[in-house]
Amino acid sequence: MILLFFVIIRLWLAATLPLTPDEAYYWVWSRHLQGGYFDHPFMVALWVKLGTFLMGDTPLGVRLLGPVSCLLGSWSLVYAARELIPSRSWPQSGYKVVLLLNATLMIGIGSATMTPDTPLVFFISVFLFSLGKALASKTKKSMIWWGLTGVFLGLAFDSKYTAVLIVIALGLYGLCKKELRKNVGFWVVAPVFSIMIMPVVYWNYTHHWASFMKQGGRTGAWQPERALQFLSELIGGQIGLATPIIFIFFVLGIGGARKKNRLLSVLIILPMIVFLAHALGDRVQANWLALLYPICALVAVEAVRSVRWGVISGVGITLLIYGQTLFAFIPFPPAKDPIQRQTAGWPLFTQQLILKAKQQGASSFVVDEYGLASQLAFNQNVIPVVGTDRRWSLFDMQKQHYVQGLLVKELHHQAANGENGSLCRESHNKTVRCYQVEVVSDPTGMLLPTHL
């Protein structure tokens, strides 16, 4: 019943809140399905495509599978708990895992929006279920469960590249366990995983390894003088996204898993070592650790007797964020409010740009920033958008030529509407962001253009 309440609230939020620029970007992906994209694999685009097929090109359509997948993933975790934390009485342990996970901001907000982390968390959850069944099964069916483990790990990788850390951790654990080395089913995981990720590998192969190079290039960053700042941001981000009490439960669970549950400990610690090492030289985005949250919820329930206050505090904080998101009861200026800055005023601003383009005789919008270009594409289908960022050149689509375009570029200083040709996006008659607007010739000759 509590999970159903969560789903209803998240569906309401998904339908009510305008899309963020990143979500609009993934919607653009969904209109050009392919094996991969410059930033991420294809799964988020596929999920958006399925959602918009059912609910249309609306915010709810884009986000539909988020709340639904969270319900199905939660069901998987209930049963994963039976096999992976046998020291706790089941099904109570499974219910606690699900409540703890759903009380985090990472899941509470993440499942109501659509990002690559949304399918990633779902597939990690069902992977844990299949892994538990594979380890527990002593019959010929274990081969099927090991195969499904490879399938779900592959789909997790097709959602976000960080899933490979779980694959490596599971592989190392299995190689160190004699009974797993002798289990034929365990050796099925790697080839099945490899088959499942072939669309992403093939797309990268045919596009000069663009996405692998972008994401892999992060590992070369090195700013040790800022390591303390990056580490504090990493820890602070997790305290915020897990919520404080649940973060403490996670830490206790990780500490206890070293003795109580070696498998889950390895699945958490190896990725954590990678993230911590990266934080010594560059910033680790807080959401990168999303793949660990279902596993952390399992070890937390194994380590603590009661999760009540963690769940109550987490749900309370999440509901406060929901309230601020929907009703803005704390009156932040739109330009300072992170939610309004991303979501407010796009439809009216887009209509004003259409009018401006028609007045100036422009046949396209010319935009270099991917979020702005995606919002303009999502909020109208009258004037095509020409993206000049490298991302757009990697879409597999036919290029078109436009004689004249309206260049739209964000200004990094405040301006009045109409000042020096600028146009401002507003919320409740207050400025959110201002943009330079001017006519340019031969927009398809600028950098790496494509038609959205």
From TrEMBL:
<dbReference type="Pfam" id="PF13231">
    <property type="entry name" value="PMT_2"/>
</dbReference>
<feature type="transmembrane region" description="Helical">
    <location>
        <begin position="288"/>
        <end position="305"/>
    </location>
</feature>
<feature type="transmembrane region" description="Helical">
    <location>
        <begin position="184"/>
        <end position="205"/>
    </location>
</feature>
<dbReference type="InterPro" id="IPR038731">
    <property type="entry name" value="RgtA/B/C-like"/>
</dbReference>
<keyword id="KW-1133">Transmembrane helix</keyword>
<keyword id="KW-0328">Glycosyltransferase</keyword>
<keyword id="KW-0808">Transferase</keyword>
<feature type="transmembrane region" description="Helical">
    <location>
        <begin position="234"/>
        <end position="257"/>
    </location>
</feature>
<dbReference type="InterPro" id="IPR050297">
    <property type="entry name" value="LipidA_mod_glycosyltrf_83"/>
</dbReference>
<dbReference type="GO" id="GO:0009103">
    <property type="term" value="P:lipopolysaccharide biosynthetic process"/>
</dbReference>
<dbReference type="GO" id="GO:0005886">
    <property type="term" value="C:plasma membrane"/>
</dbReference>
<keyword id="KW-1003">Cell membrane</keyword>
<feature type="transmembrane region" description="Helical">
    <location>
        <begin position="263"/>
        <end position="281"/>
    </location>
</feature>
<feature type="domain" description="Glycosyltransferase RgtA/B/C/D-like">
    <location>
        <begin position="39"/>
        <end position="203"/>
    </location>
</feature>
<feature type="transmembrane region" description="Helical">
    <location>
        <begin position="93"/>
        <end position="114"/>
    </location>
</feature>
<protein>
    <submittedName>
        <fullName>Glycosyltransferase family 39 protein</fullName>
    </submittedName>
</protein>
<feature type="transmembrane region" description="Helical">
    <location>
        <begin position="143"/>
        <end position="172"/>
    </location>
</feature>
<feature type="transmembrane region" description="Helical">
    <location>
        <begin position="60"/>
        <end position="81"/>
    </location>
</feature>
<keyword id="KW-0812">Transmembrane</keyword>
<dbReference type="GO" id="GO:0016763">
    <property type="term" value="F:pentosyltransferase activity"/>
</dbReference>
<feature type="transmembrane region" description="Helical">
    <location>
        <begin position="311"/>
        <end position="332"/>
    </location>
</feature>
<keyword id="KW-0472">Membrane</keyword>
